Input
Amino acid sequence: MGVSHAVPTGVQTGDPTGLHRVLEPAGVLPQAAVRLDTRRELWPDEVRIRVERLNLDAASFRQLARKHAEDGEAVRAEVLDIIATRGKMQNPETGSGGMLVGTVEEVGEESPLGLAVGDRVTTLVSLTLTPLVIEDGLSRWDGLSEQVPADGYAVLFGRSIAARIPDDLPAALSLSVMDVCGAPALTARVVGQYASTGSTAERPTVAVIGGAGKSGSLSLVAAKEAGAARTIGVVPNQEEADLLEASGVADSVTIADARDPVALSRAVARAGGPADVTVVCVDVPGCEGGAILATADRGTVIFFSMATSFSAAALGAEGLAADITMLVGNGYVPGHADYAMSLLRAHPGVRRLFERRL
Amino acid sequence: MGVSHAVPTGVQTGDPTGLHRVLEPAGVLPQAAVRLDTRRELWPDEVRIRVERLNLDAASFRQLARKHAEDGEAVRAEVLDIIATRGKMQNPETGSGGMLVGTVEEVGEESPLGLAVGDRVTTLVSLTLTPLVIEDGLSRWDGLSEQVPADGYAVLFGRSIAARIPDDLPAALSLSVMDVCGAPALTARVVGQYASTGSTAERPTVAVIGGAGKSGSLSLVAAKEAGAARTIGVVPNQEEADLLEASGVADSVTIADARDPVALSRAVARAGGPADVTVVCVDVPGCEGGAILATADRGTVIFFSMATSFSAAALGAEGLAADITMLVGNGYVPGHADYAMSLLRAHPGVRRLFERRL
Output
């Protein structure tokens, strides 16, 4: 591991959140920073990764492609400029980043991440807070896809998260599972809290809105394993209903437009609802009212969609006098990546749904 | 109660959420509707209120006053036009409404709200979903304040919420308590879940960001009553610190800018943190990171601020690998208004903080 864990002299003490790498503005966390310090030398709890690939966030790539009228050269030039200027890949328009794949190059002696030199890993924290340097000018990338072959290095902090890429699965499949691995882990925790009384009467009914999608299908099997009495997959059309039914991932499948509160709650009721736990996994705005209405008194809604409106959820529940718990879907639960991988291995139906999307 | 509970013939069945009063677009909940049906005749589970006063939402009134350059006549004309056009008071720009005060005029025979003719009440559901008719042209209102003397009627649904105005407190004080009564009730529930093990070691430390405010001061005393080991009030400056200390409402008081994550988490730590439960009661954007960082592993953040960004909370926790539960502050918990009133009566320090703001 060399000696580069020595703290550069004259600089502040390291911090597990990466505060010591924030150049401006002072005092904010790395995600909110305009510019990060990308020096190669590691603080004692850091890890340096040799980068082989960036996966740009879909919304970020779409914005760049549109702005430059699909001119790949121009997109590549702007991505290089963003990374060089900010010391991280964070699209200033969308605020989003992506993730990266690489190999561990050096591990600071106080790193708590459990990684070893040579491990092939993917980061589970966003590129928006990861110090990054590109050394090949992205010369192997045509600027026309979110998948960016790259050579360079990135730095992980003490509180960062990275997962080893398993040997038994194609890398693209692993990455696509890791991208959504927070949802099944939190779903399992919430369902397990209901089910932990041991009484059959307490085993909850779980509805997953967007059940045929990546986070949705994983959440359905996670709910069942955690003790759900019944799982209901909600999908927008017959095609997805056929896919989800064929996968065997849900106890029942029902079709509804998630933006129509009455249609959604009636569909869930027909399928055995209301739900004790409703999991929102569709990235369209306006699903808050339907999720609230489909949920039983004293039940729980978990919002995983980034299209969720905080005020629509808060005011919507108040307006319906709905005594329910509403959770912001935290993408981090300890062990989430390994857990999601184990679900994929154990459930061929989930794997088929993922492979369709690769 | 007369006979007007008879369902108007030829119309659809009533629904506790008020769906039967939605004129357009079809299928949405009353809050999302463009226009509501304001007919006087009640469905069996409805209640009609004789309105004496509207309290417009502060953001809505500010927008109207600015738009019309403080011309009260023009503001009044627009409010009348909104109510006449939409059948409810929902500012199309801000999306917000307000609340109303009035007297129960008629109770449908299947109403579950427990109200009687003559009760003086305030609505705890928003004006954005309440059918409303103004009959006096708002002639007693100068258009220069959020407080709108009015004559007319409003309709409550089966799932609406209204609270009797207590006789022993000034009406303005009661209303200002009811406006924020969801926060102490949910805080008490969450703290009680931690404390319910009975072991002293499990009694949580609770930090309230914005502790000298209305929802903040009530949440501080609610947390203590529910079993908090220690309550910490966080305020932005010395003046509020002096006020909160003099009120005796918090076990300790600390000063920090809630938008500065590091400063906030250090201030909470100095005051006895990290917090097992952090309650965000300040209506400024950018407090998500600090609240997450100030909270202990496996702790809970409750976001009551309407300025909360869903994605900042979700991505912020993931970026910090923070294994915490994040709750959307649902404004409805059964019994919330009575509970908040009882806190105000029992804690003179809270009452003094409220009376300063009237």
Summary: Residues 1-11 of chain B have pLDDT under 50 and may be disordered. Chain B touches chain A through 51 residues (CB under 8 Å). The first strand of chain B starts at residue 22 and ends at 24.
